[in-house]
């Protein structure tokens, strides 16, 4: 019975395909061919058009040969006809003629079989494992074999380093000195390269030393490394290309090579030699055109923006220009108005000035005519003034005499009153004597009584010394008691302080024990240690909730809990620390206010940074759960993370939108979940293409690749124990210490209560003693007061006696009544004499007053007569000067007008001069000068005309006379001057009109005009730049199109050839492989994808450095390199131990295929390094086997010839 081909992986990544019966294989091939024929016929009947060029195809569209079976991504067969149709469709799009199939021809081969650049000879000395060796490889396949460690890979190193390629190509030592054999100071590599036909071969020697120094010689002459590189490059040697030179340590690098790098290396290794330069040109031009288009878009956006600004500012600029014109008109009008105002006032001034001079002459003449009368009147006024002064002096003299008379009369009256008083004293003198005697008798009686009282013995009292001793003792007892009281107060203070400390400590300890059970307090304390800014922001938010439009949610760490502690670890693994510390706002205004208050300003009293979050609520943007609840239960999950947390409603959108809690499934039982099914379920593309789920203690992050077949990837990591969503309980030791503090404080308070009773008793005892001492002191004081009162009473009697005696002595010493009478009589006589003298003075004064009064009266009469004369004369002058007064009044009025007009004219002249001087705008100066000149000429002509009218008789008759003479009144003048000859009122009206227009036009910002001009210039410059750049873009696009029309068809033909060879090679080993060229708008991203399939149940998968096993990667690598061999245009290629990890069947197939490919007549030189050989391998006469026999011991020379033996072996097997 036939067995299916199955591919399994061994522990060492070797591919071990199971055998398959030949009969079954033939039957399967026949069935496959039948299917292909049927499918080809159906496709021919449908005549479907080929896909357009550049369109990527699925694995189902990958073609296969009509005679060989190829497996696509789904494991189905498709005919190779699709490939030809695709190629034909692409070729039709090429501008110009259809690109021919690329035929790569090697350089002319010499008669010895070598092509230029092939290695003719290699010689090594003191290199790695070799002391000295020299050998000559053949022009075709060279199979280098030998045991491990003998130096096979050293030959690859020698070729690389000898041709001056860097050690990094080998993937081994990075320094050249490492390749000198151990213990040696110097070695060399000598390689002889085949030169073009008719030229001398190139013998390159590289000397390497242990001190890092290296030297080159070319054909025996010293040369530089750069010259060696140039010579090697001329021969197209590509040691740095993994497609042509694959060292042992770089096998894995080929699979890890990016598809873009693979395309570049493939172009270098095979196909048209211009492919690489075309591709480089396309990449360079593509980058250049992207930059140009980016700059073009930027400039177009800038141009559009500038044009919009120009359009927006155009109206404003027009208004600004209008305002400028109005301002010029205003400036001209203001200047002309100021000059016209001065001219008008000046005309009025000149007219008034003429009148002023005429009236002044009239006033002067009238004044001269009345001058004699005025002089006589003035003399009378002077005489009247003199006599008025004399009368005033007389009045003053009379006033002084009256005052003196009044003074003497007053003195006379005072002396009369004094005389009356003296008479009254004489009458009262007798009564005063009686009272004095009466008082003397009373004082004598009081003195006697006081002396009798003093003679009595004093009352008996205590000894003051004894009483003082008792008082001192009581004070001493009081002092000692006060000291005891003070000590007791200190004890009370100590008691109260200790009790307060114990009470405070008890309250703190009890509050602390209470806080141990307060979750919010514990979380706040934890947050303070975690993030001080977040902790302070939480406290700030609680105090300022009223500032926000909606509720701002505190961080999930504070307000979210996991009731079922079994799910705490899983839930915490799905949310990161930043999300746990995020403040969640429910509207845009609140998140802006929160950021402004804390992140943007020191709202916490310092600079702080917190995490804030807000997103617009939109269910359509939210990815749905990957599976329904029923399917989730069927998969073995308990539920989604959102179901296991308690949270405020305002946090729900954050947990779904930011944390995906509604998409992350959790199970505590990992054995009940099939991870493969779970990955496929959560990775469905229609539900987002990926999610996370927790299975036991493992977090699985499932993502779908963005490229290729978009395969699922699953990253796993162990989840740690939850730290944040579990409120940490207080350490038992901390709680025990707090409880001990409470107990100690309670015992201390009990002690203080007992101590208080003792202190209160001591205080009462001191108070009782204090009362007794106070009573003693009060008694002593009363006894002292008795002694003091007795002493005070005697002292009072002594003082009273002394005072009474003094009063009695004073009364006795007073003068007698007779002496007083005599004294009073003398005073009375003296005052009478004085009174008589005053009477005499009054009589004398009255006698001298009469003649002076007569003279004074006569002077007053003269004054009255003079004043009467003055009055009569003034009346006469007034009558005569009436005309003068009227003329003078007119003159005064006119003089006032004259002065006003003169001052006004001076002020207007200054303003006019200022207006003329202050002109700065040339246009305003020119226009205002023109207008003022026109007006000046017009007014001169008008003035001349008016003079002529006056000479002709004046008035209408004068004008009529001038008209008869042919003289007309000057008019408005030439056309266009009407506005220049307007009156002052018309000019002022026009100026106000302009000012009103300016009030409505506020566009006075010159910056807008400058910006307008700048933007307009920018639009023009950008327009030119855009047009020039567009021309450049079109030129480059045409260049890109021409280059792509050359490059893409040739490249696609090359890839198609590689694809066919690669697929055929995989078909021969019972697997499937495909090579596809993937296009991209960015030419740097064009790539070659290698997809392989080694098992029936698999699909074609992209070759990567991680997906396939080591053996699979090695097999894919060598088959791809073999596909390039017949297309390569390099002089030689090399692969080192590519068969590592292959099973025997694959290794045999690969070997035989390599012999067929590399021993072809047109093949270039090839090096195959392998450590092992299978029996019954295929050999070819053109191949050369190099056996390395390297070691410390070599066998002795014996009879026999190895070459002869090999030739005989090959001949026998070839004949067979």
Tags for this entry?
P-loop_NTPase, single chain, single-stranded DNA binding, alpha/beta, Structural maintenance of chromosomes protein 5, 60% helix, 1216 residues, coiled coil, 23 strands, RecF/RecN/SMC_N, Rossmann fold, 5-stranded parallel beta sheet, 28 helices
- Kindly report the average pLDDT value: 79
Number of strands: 23
The shape is flat
Strand order of the largest sheet: 4-3-6-7-8-9
Quaternary structure type? single chain
Topology readout:
Layout: E1 7-9, E2 15-17, H1 22-46, H2 81-92, E3 119-127, E4 130-135, E5 141-145, H3 152-162, E6 186-193, E7 202-209, E8 214-218, E9 221-223, H4 225-234, E10 245-246, H5 251-256, H6 259-269, H7 275-369, H8 371-455, H9 464-516, H10 519-530, H11 532-543, H12 556-559, H13 568-573, H14 577-580, E11 582-584, H15 588-599, E12 611-613, H16 629-635, E13 639-640, H17 652-657, E14 665-667, H18 675-682, E15 690-695, E16 698-704, E17 712-718, H19 732-813, H20 817-880, H21 882-917, H22 922-951, H23 955-964, H24 984-1000, H25 1006-1068, E18 1072-1078, E19 1087-1093, E20 1101-1102, H26 1110-1125, E21 1132-1136, H27 1144-1158, E22 1165-1170, E23 1184-1187, H28 1202-1215
Helix pairs in contact: 2-25, 7-21, 7-22, 7-24, 7-25, 8-19, 8-20, 9-19, 10-11, 22-23, 25-26, 26-27
């Amino acid at each position: 019975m036939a067995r299916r081909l199955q591919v399994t992986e061994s522990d060492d990544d070797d591919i071990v395909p199971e055998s398959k019966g030949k009969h079954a294989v033939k039957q399967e091939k026949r069935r496959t061919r039948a299917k292909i024929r049927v499918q080809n016929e159906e496709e021919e009947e449908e005549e479907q058009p080929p896909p357009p060029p550049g369109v990527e195809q699925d694995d189902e569209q990958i073609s296969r040969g009509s005679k060989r079976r190829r497996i696509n991504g789904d494991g189905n067969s498709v005919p190779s006809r699709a490939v030809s149709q695709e190629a034909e469709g692409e070729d039709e799009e090429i501008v110009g003629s259809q690109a021919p199939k690329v035929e790569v021809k090697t350089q002319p081969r010499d008669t010895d079989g070598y092509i230029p650049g092939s290695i003719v000879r290699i010689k090594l000395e003191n290199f790695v494992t070799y002391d000295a060796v020299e050998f000559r490889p053949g022009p075709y396949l060279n199979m280098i074999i030998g045991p491990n460690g003998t130096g096979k890979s050293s030959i690859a190193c020698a070729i690389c380093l000898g041709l001056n390629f860097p050690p990094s190509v080998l993937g081994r030592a990075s320094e050249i000195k490492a390749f000198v054999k151990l213990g040696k100071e110097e070695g060399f590599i000598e390689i002889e390269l085949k030169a073009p036909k008719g030229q001398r071969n190139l013998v390159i020697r590289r000397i390497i030393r242990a001190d890092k120094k290296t030297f080159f010689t070319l054909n025996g002459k010293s040369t530089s490394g750069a010259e060696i590189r140039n010579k090697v490059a001329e021969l197209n040697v590509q040691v740095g290309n993994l497609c042509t030179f694959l060292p042992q340590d770089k096998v894995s690098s080929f699979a890890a090579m990016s598809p873009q790098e693979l395309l570049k290396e493939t172009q270098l290794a095979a196909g048209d030699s211009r492919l690489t330069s075309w591709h480089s040109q396309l990449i360079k031009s593509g980058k250049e055109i992207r930059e140009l288009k980016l700059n073009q878009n930027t400039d177009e956006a800038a141009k559009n923006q500038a044009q919009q600004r120009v359009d927006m500012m155009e109206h404003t600029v027009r208004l600004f220009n209008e305002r400028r014109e109005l301002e010029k008109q205003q400036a001209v009008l203001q200047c002309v108005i100021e000059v016209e105002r001065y001219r008008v006032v000046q005309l009025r001034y000149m007219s008034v000035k003429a009148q002023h001079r005429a009236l002044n002459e009239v006033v002067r003449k009238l004044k001269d005519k009345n001058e004699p009368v005025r002089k006589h009147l003035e003399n009378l006024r002077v005489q009247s003034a003199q006599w008025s002064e004399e009368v005033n002096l007389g009045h003053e003299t009379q006033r002084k005499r009256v005052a003196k008379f009044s003074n003497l009369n007053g003195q006379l009256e005072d002396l009369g009153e004094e005389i009356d008083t003296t008479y009254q004293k004489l009458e009262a003198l007798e009564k005063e004597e009686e009272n004095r005697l009466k008082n003397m008798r009373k004082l004598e009686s009081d003195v006697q009584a006081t002396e009798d009282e003093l003679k009595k013995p004093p009352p008996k009292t205590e000894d003051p010394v004894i009483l003082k001793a008792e008082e001192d003792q009581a004070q001493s007892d009081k002092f000692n008691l006060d000291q005891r009281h003070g000590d007791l107060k200190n004890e009370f203070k100590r008691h109260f302080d200790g009790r307060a400390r114990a009470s405070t400590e008890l309250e703190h300890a009890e509050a602390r024990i209470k806080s141990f059970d307060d979750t919010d307090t514990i979380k706040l304390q934890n947050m303070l240690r975690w993030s001080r800014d977040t902790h302070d922001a939480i406290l700030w938010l609680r105090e300022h909730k009223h500032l926000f439009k909606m509720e701002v949610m505190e961080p999930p760490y504070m307000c979210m809990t996991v009731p079922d502690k079994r799910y705490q670890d899983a839930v915490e693994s799905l949310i990161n620390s930043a999300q746990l510390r995020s403040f969640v706002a429910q509207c845009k205004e609140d998140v802006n206010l929160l950021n402004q208050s804390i992140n943007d300003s020191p709202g916490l009293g310092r600079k702080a940074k917190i995490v804030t979050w807000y997103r617009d609520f939109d269910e359509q943007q939210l990815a749905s759960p990957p599976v329904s609840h029923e399917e989730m239960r069927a998969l073995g999950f308990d539920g989604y993370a959102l179901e296991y947390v308690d949270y405020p409603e305002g946090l729900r959108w954050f947990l779904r939108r930011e944390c995906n809690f509604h998409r992350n499934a959790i199970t505590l039982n990992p054995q009940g979940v099939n991870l493969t099914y779970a990955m496929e379920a959560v990775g469905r593309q229609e539900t987002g293409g990926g999610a996370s789920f927790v299975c036991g203690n493992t977090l699985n992050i499932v993502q779908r690749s963005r490229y290729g077949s978009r395969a699922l990837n699953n990253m796993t990591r162990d989840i740690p124990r939850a730290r944040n969503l579990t409120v940490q309980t207080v350490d038992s030791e901390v709680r025990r210490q707090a409880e001990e503090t409470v107990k100690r404080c309670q015992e201390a308070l009990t002690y203080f209560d007992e101590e208080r009773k003792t202190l209160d008793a001591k205080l009462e005892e001191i108070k009782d003693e204090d009362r007794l001492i106070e009573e003693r002191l009060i008694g002593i004081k009363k006894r002292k007061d008795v002694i003091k009162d007795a002493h005070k009473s005697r002292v009072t009697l002594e003082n009273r006696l002394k005072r009474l005696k003094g009063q009695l002595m004073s009364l006795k010493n007073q003068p007698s009544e007779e002496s007083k009478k005599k004294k009073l009589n003398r005073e009375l006589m003296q005052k009478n004499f004085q009174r008589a003298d005053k009477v005499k003075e009054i009589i004398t004064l009255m006698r001298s007053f009469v003649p002076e009064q007569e003279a004074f009266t006569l002077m007053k009469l003269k004054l009255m007569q003079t004043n009467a004369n003055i009055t009569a004369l003034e009346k006469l002058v007034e009558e005569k000067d009436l005309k003068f007064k009227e003329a003078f009044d007119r003159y005064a009025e006119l003089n006032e007008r004259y002065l006003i007009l003169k001052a006004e004219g001076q002020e207007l002249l200054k303003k006019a001069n200022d207006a003329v001087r202050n002109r700065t705008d040339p246009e305003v100066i020119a226009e205002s000068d023109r207008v003022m000149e026109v007006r000046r000429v017009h007014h001169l002509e008008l003035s001349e005309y008016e003079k002529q009218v006056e000479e002709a008789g004046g008035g209408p008759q004068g004008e009529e006379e001038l008209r008869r003479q042919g003289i007309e009144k000057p008019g408005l003048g030439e056309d266009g001057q009407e506005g220049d000859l307007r009156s002052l009122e018309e000019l002022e009206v026009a100026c106000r009109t302009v000012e009103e227009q300016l009030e409505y036009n506020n566009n006075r910002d010159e910056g807008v005009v400058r910006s307008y001009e700048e933007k307009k210039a920018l639009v023009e410059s950008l327009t030119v730049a855009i047009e020039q750049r567009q021309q450049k873009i079109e030129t480059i696009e045409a260049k890109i199109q021409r280059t792509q029309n050359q490059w893409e068809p040739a490249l696609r033909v090359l890839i198609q050839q590689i694809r066919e060879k690669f697929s055929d090679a995989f078909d021969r080993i019972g697997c499937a492989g495909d090579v596809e060229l993937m296009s991209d708008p960015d030419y740097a991203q064009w790539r070659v994808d290698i997809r392989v399939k080694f098992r029936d149940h698999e699909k074609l998968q992209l070759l990567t450095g991680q997906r396939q096993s080591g053996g699979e990667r090695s097999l894919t690598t060598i088959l791809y390199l073999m596909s390039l061999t017949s297309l390569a245009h390099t002089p030689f290629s090399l692969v080192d131990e590519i068969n590592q990890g292959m099973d025997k069947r694959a290794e045999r197939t690969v070997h035989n295929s390599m012999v067929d490919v590399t021993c072809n007549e047109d093949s270039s030189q090839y090096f195959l390094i392998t450590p092992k050989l299978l029996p019954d391998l295929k050999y070819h006469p053109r191949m050369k086997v190099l056996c390395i026999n390297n070691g410390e011991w070599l066998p002795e020379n014996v009879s026999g010839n190895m070459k002869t033996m090999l030739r005989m072996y090959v001949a026998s097997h070839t004949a067979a």
